[in-house]
Amino acid sequence: MDFAESTKYLLSLGNEVSAMKLGLENIRTLLAALDDPQNNFLKVQVAGTNGKGSVCAFLDSMCVRAGIKTGLFTSPHLISITERIKIGGVEISEADFALHATRVREICELRVAKGELEAIPTFFEQITAIALSVFAEEEIELAILETGLGGRLDATTAANAEIVAITQIDYDHQEYLGDTLVEIAAEKAAIIRSDTKVVVAKQKREAELVIRGRCREAGVEPNFAKSNYPNVVLGLLGKHQQANAAVAIAIVQELRELNFIIPDDKMRTGLETARHPGRLEYFENFLFDGAHNIAGASALREYLDEFVKQPITMIFGAMKGKDAGEIASVLFPKIEILILTKPENTRALEAAEILNMIPDQGLKKVVLTGNVAEAIKIAREVYAPDGLICVTGSLYLVGEAKKILNN
After folding, report:
1. Pick from 12, 112, 114, 245: most CB atoms within 10 A?
2. CA pair distance 41, 107, nearest whole angstrom
3. What backbone phi and psi angles, to 5 degrees, belong to 90?
4. Residues with Cβ within 8 Å of residue 74, at least 6 apart in sequence
């Protein structure tokens, strides 16, 4: 397969969330057929509700600055699927992606034909296998893996990371992880094993108790991250990034104990130059932020309150299963004009569905649109000359909007 064919094939496997099959049996069988590429390097796995990608971005930036050859695996992508896999901070080429995707597909189909796999592995299982295969071939020293969903049954957990980190835990994906913080925390804390080093962000009391309990069961001592790094201007915007940077720094401390050389000046430069597209990212008069749950919306609102003084027009879209009403109650009182839209995603809500979910916020103007291109066109027509257009509610929406604007 060439790159276009490999992308089309992977997307044909279904949406990476709604078509997801939680469980480790398939991915372990697939990795074994690839000669267990994950055993060739040290791994860090980052789980949690919010901040996973930011922690990975900070950590990768610090390690790359220190001269460590890293492999970074994150999700979702915004524009190109190659964004998910980086070597030394650089996206892999389309040709390399296609090569590994073809190999993984052939192995999947062969194992199904032999009866070694019950079904073709899912999109996320295959993309995880592709990443680990690339990392082994590139002979990286350190893999940084962002958990897709949960932890206990997520495909990245099959890599058996030597260091695991848990960012802030909050409500999200309750249909898969449970309705309470205790249940959600248990799913994420399940990545902790007796042979892991554990880093934990500051947590709500219920989540912290679950994590501490899991650590006791595993016989490990958690390293609770503390924000104690003076004179550093973080490369990622928002006060909430301080907690994410603290987790990344605590991971660096654990890496140092495993003989990775990461000097303080390289840490500082890495923190200052880290980038994470789609999270409080500016482009001309647009501000992109993938806030898709209550915690993310609260972080965005805090940033808007502190730093944005001009009138805000908001383009908002959401996926099924998200609490759009709660998110609306946090964000919409801050804005002047609301434009509801639907990204090109099978899980996306129609604009009218979102309108029915949100409380009356006394907005001056609400516009319903059928697609993101229409939403951007209208936003440019109606926003105040000195105003800002904020695109939020879903990373899929942010990615589509960025692609339209880039074109």
Report:
1. 245
2. 22
3. -120, 130
4. 53, 56, 57, 83, 84, 86, 146
Check if the beta carbon of residue 262 is closer than 8 Å to that of residue 255.
yes
Q: How far apart are CA 395 and CA 317, in angstroms?
A: 9
Q: Give the Cα separation of 258 and 76 in Å (integer).
A: 30
pLDDT at 20: 60
Q: Is the dihedral of CA 337, 339, 340, 343 positive or negative?
A: negative
Q: Give the distance, in angstroms, between the CA of residue 2 and the centroid of all CA atoms in the same chain.
A: 26
Rounded CA separation 314/290 (Å): 13
Biggest CA-to-CA distance, the chain: 63
Phi, psi of 361 (to 5 degrees): -105, 5
Is there a contact between 383 and 354 (Cβ–Cβ < 8 Å)?
A: no
Contact 196, 221 (CB under 8 A): no
Other beta carbons less than 10 A from residue 319's beta carbon = 21
Amino acid at 196: T
How far is CA 396 from each of CA 67, 131, 240, 251, 400, rounded to the nearest angstrom?
33, 21, 22, 29, 6
Retrieve residue 85's tokens: 């896999």
Q: What span, in angstroms and rounded, lies between the C-alpha atoms of 283 and 124?
A: 30
Q: Compute CA distances 26 → 9, 103, 154, 157, whole Å.
A: 18, 16, 11, 12
Give the chain's end-to-end CA distance (angstroms, integer). Answer: 26
Q: Which of 234, 236, 268, 40 is nearest to 138 (CA)?
A: 40
Please give the single-letter amino acid code of residue 267.
M
Token pair for 178: 């449970």
310 and 343 in contact (C-beta within 8 Å)? Answer: no
Rounded CA separation 323/357 (Å): 8
Cβ neighbours around 115 below 10 Å, total: 7
* Confidence check: pLDDT of 384 > 90: no
Domains of the chain from N-terminus onward: 3-273 (3.40.1190.10), 281-406 (3.90.190.20)
- Whole-model pTM over 0.90: yes
Give CA torsion, residues 381, 382, 388, 393, to 10 deg.
-100
Q: Are 274 and 234 in contact (CB under 8 A)?
A: yes
- Mean predicted lDDT score pLDDT of the chain: 93
Q: Please report the pLDDT score of residue 175 as a whole number.
A: 54
Q: Chain centroid to CA 333: how far?
A: 27
* Beta-bridge mates of residue 391: 288, 315
